[in-house]
# Entry
Amino acid sequence: MLFYYPDVEEMPVPDGHRFPARKYRLLRAAIERDEILPMQSLAASPPATPDDLLRAHGAGYVDAMLDGTVSKDIIRRIGLPWSETLVRRSRATVGGAMAAARSALEHGVSGQLAGGTHHAHRDFGSGFCVFNDLAVTALTLLEEKIVDRIAIVDLDVHQGDGNAAILKGLPGVFILSVHGEKNFPFRKVPSDLDVELPDGTEDGAYIAALREALPAVAAFKPDLLLYLSGADPLKQDKLGRLSLSFEGLAERDRIVFELCRTGGIPVSIAIGGGYAEPIADSVTAYANTFREARAVFHF
# Structure
């Protein structure tokens, strides 16, 4: 099995910018230093092609994003300055998601040390998301008839409005989003099942809500589960507004992975948001997700 990382230089962001671009480099360093994943399983993400991106996005938006003519309004919605590095990383994120999904179908579990760009819509990016890796992946595998049914379990603290806008209503897709009720995006696009949590929700209430929601995923009988874990429900997260502990997040991950293992559902991981102060706390939460995957799937 393989786990993918974007082998692209760090995104240039202004000093003081609230997007912690260095977290991906720090996560890969932690994975390697602590041998959380087998070293031979780490692989550079292949870039998504323009044709890949067109499965989920309009041609005008894709072309403008790739050549740098995208409007200032869209760049403002994305919240990251346009650069060739941003484009390369965004293409690697989508390509990594597609490659990880294929690896999961072969080996039972995979993922990438990035991804979860669930705020990107068909014709615009938003919320630090340029292209929607989960939507492109789902539409590609369904179009190629590699799978018939895909579930997305989105546990990022922010609701996956882009996922819902692009994918909702497709009979081969089921989307569960567990998120902060009052958090971004403020205009939410309904998923197949949305679980909205109040500010300050702690481990016990969160785990109870997750356990109540997951039977709907199992009942859908997916051929593949795309898991957007998210480190931003962590109490220390600047943008999260929930109050989960490291232990609570690890239990959350374990519950999802056990569902997949016992149900024979291949699972591909995307790490989603994480904005803790210090950012090392988000990196620890991300790394713990992969620790739990290895413990549950025994690889």
User: Anything to note?
Assistant: The chain has a mean pLDDT of 97. The chain is about 45% helix and 10% strand. The beta strands are 3-5, 42-44, 109-112, 150-154, 173-180, 193-197, 224-228, 267-270. Residues 84-107 form the longest helix (24 residues).
